[in-house]
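Purpose: get a first structural picture of the assembly so the mutagenesis plan has something to point at.
Setup: two entries, given in the order below. No constraints added.
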Amino acid sequence: MSMPLPVTGAQITLAKPALQQVFDALLAAGYLVVGPTVRESAIVYDEITKITELPIGWTDEQRPGSYRLKPRGDQHYFGFVVGPHSWKKYLFPPTLKLFSTRRAGSSFEVLPNEQPAPKYAFIGVRGCELAAIAVQDRTFLEGAIQEPHYKARRENAFILAINCTEPGGTCFCVSMKTGPKVKAGFDLALTELDESFLIEVGSPLGAQMLAGVEWRPAATVEVEHATQALAEAEAKMGRTLDTHDLPNLLYDNLEHPRWDDVAQRCLSCTNCTMVCPTCFCSDVEDVADLTGENTERVRVWDSCFNPDFSSVYSGNLRPNVRSRYRQWLTHKLASWIDQFGSSGCVGCGRCITWCPVGIDLTEEVAAIRGEPPA
Amino acid sequence: MMPSQPAVAGLPAANAMLPVLATITQIQAEAPGIATYTLEFQDPAWRSAYRFRPGQFNMLYLPGIGEVAISMSSDAEAPQPLLHTIRSAGNVTQAISRLKVGQAIGVRGPYGSHWPVEAARGGDVIFVSGGIGLAPLRPAICSVIRHRADYGKVTMLVGARTPADLLYPGEYESWRQHDIEMLVTVDRADETWHGRVGVVPLLFYALWPDPLRTTLFSCGPEIMMRFVVYEALARRFPKDRLYVSLERNMKCAIGFCGHCQFGPAFLCKDGPVFTYAQVEPFFGVEEF
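Result (structure tokens, whole complex):
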């Protein structure tokens, strides 16, 4: 095939099975292709090589504390929203060896983890998730010190983004201004139409992966269909969050009775922080072998809901669920903005869906604002 | 926020979580459960390059045990050897208390904001410490003594639970000789004690400070600092001349682990030394 490469910004159309050719190009370029796939009654992110491993024909029904897969009745490839996983598990792995040590007499040696960072191609990154990656970039890359493991993974990553045309029951990206349309930060962005994929080329690297792929310039009617579907999606959000003056609302209500109320329901289980695509807290553990000669220092995800999270020798600074939930919500929606210049919430709704008791942060904020429950 | 200090020159960013090795060359018992450890970097390049500022801290590491944030207590203008005064309390500090001279320890740092010893020149200084809180203040005291003529009246309010818990008592006489007024109090006296009894904030009632020309540096239990701030504000000290050093759980010291957050601040990089003006909105909030 001798198709010319499309330029950045070009809109092209692909027959759906031709997406396999993009996968093949990524695999040939040495990428580990990671995308959505069905496992254990959920759509998770895992390494895949074939487009048939995508959740073709599946969708998800999401409500506070509830997630169910069901057949769509058609053969759409991306007709669902976000599941329990996020791309953070690849860029900021749940466990990561920082270094190891070996005893040497009365001293010891420090051996850095020099394993090269994997090269991932992310398939199906939604607007809220692109925003979440940008949020973690601010934490790990844009301060005085860069986190080297995140940096290496991030620089290696290829991003095939998806425009969401069917928001889920706990979605509120419109409130957080992160979607449903992806705006920037992708190599390719795909909109699924009934009969084809409309693809916007976001970078020269994205264009390269279309070499050898059968494509044609998008027809005006296809672009119009996609634009209309996205406009309709904006009106179909399952949730809304009023962000007006949100930091001051929370800072001014640190003793609001709603914190006691939510503490009665919250199990402090950490689910919301584990599924959150922006939560970045971590702990570091030392693991020794049986001889004690060799140790590994391992970074693991932590959560501000863990009882020990703010323990110092003189006591636990946040000894109850009320103080931990208050820390999580005020950090996510208020102090995050002071720290990094943007909210820590991207409106993906995962914390609502995966909360075992269905706590909905949009409802908690509305209650503090004094609004009647919806 | 006070700009945080960059890590030591030459510390590659890619190795920000990697400790460098130091050897313990001396251990000096200070008080029950408290000792001062003299550390010497094994790498000569580190010995000559390492600098810190009064009030900053290092992360000290023992393999198989973990890391702990400990302030420097030595003179920052004589950065080697490095002194850390450590109370045996948690997991890591208990393991450190079992170390012997000649053994190695991992060091990362320096991290955090510092006492504004230069900015305080030309005026009076009040140091207020409770218990081990004197350790992070000691480098600032060393700096004031080195440049004593640049300061006006210098006063130290020192408290401890019992006379045996007083830190660095052997140095008080030398500090007095540098024209530092020493007011020392204990919570509980014993038969050896002929000094003051009572909590540290009460020592304010023995002072006639000039609030508009004084900088106050305070380090100790948060409840002590809360009342120190209360007494200082009652005497019309400006909020941006009241400095407190706070303590939180820390895992990384470089703003990534999230543990040390205090409202918008990360204690590791925005603190541990803050003006009261910086932390006022959250200083008195319970369990925040």
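Chain A is about 30% helix and 25% strand.
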